[in-house]
Task: inverse folding
């Protein structure tokens, strides 16, 4: 273990704290914790056929009359990969794809079953937010949310 620690230090020689996970890793750790809770809630409520890959489609905001290419771009994946997930979700009854008026394109929306999943996901994330707020204190948690909102707004304007 000491040898691997030394190797990391050598690879980041100008970093005063090469063991610091940095913001990207911290956000990923938080997202992973939320996704694990969502997965558990879905299994507990009988949605065991869904997995994390499907979250790329079922994330906020839920798809409502959206083109697959737009969903793919939002998820950071190819249109082909998105269509693969959409086909699975359509076969399982969570989304529907309907012809876009006068073209070969199709629009994606949640079915009633898909909306049940969206509501459960949202309730689960609200529960996680409450737990985290209780853990770090409401004032600090609200400051975190505010800072993230500010960073999102700055990122969308650049």
Result:
């Amino acid at each position: 273990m000491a040898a691997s620690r030394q190797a990391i230090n050598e690879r980041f020689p100008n970093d005063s704290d090469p063991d610091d996970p940095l913001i990207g890793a911290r956000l990923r750790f938080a997202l992973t914790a939320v996704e694990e809770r969502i997965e558990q809630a879905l299994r507990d409520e009988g949605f065991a056929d869904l997995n994390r890959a499907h979250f790329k489609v079922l994330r906020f905001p839920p798809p409502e009359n959206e083109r697959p290419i737009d969903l793919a771009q939002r998820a950071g994946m190819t249109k082909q990969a998105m269509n693969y997930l959409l086909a699975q979700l359509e076969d399982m009854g969570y989304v529907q794809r309907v012809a876009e008026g006068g073209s070969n394109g199709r629009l994606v929306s949640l079915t009633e079953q898909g909306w049940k999943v969206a509501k459960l996901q949202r309730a689960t994330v609200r529960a996680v937010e409450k737990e985290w707020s209780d853990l770090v204190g409401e004032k600090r948690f609200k400051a975190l949310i505010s800072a993230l909102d500010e960073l999102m707004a700055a990122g969308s304007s650049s």
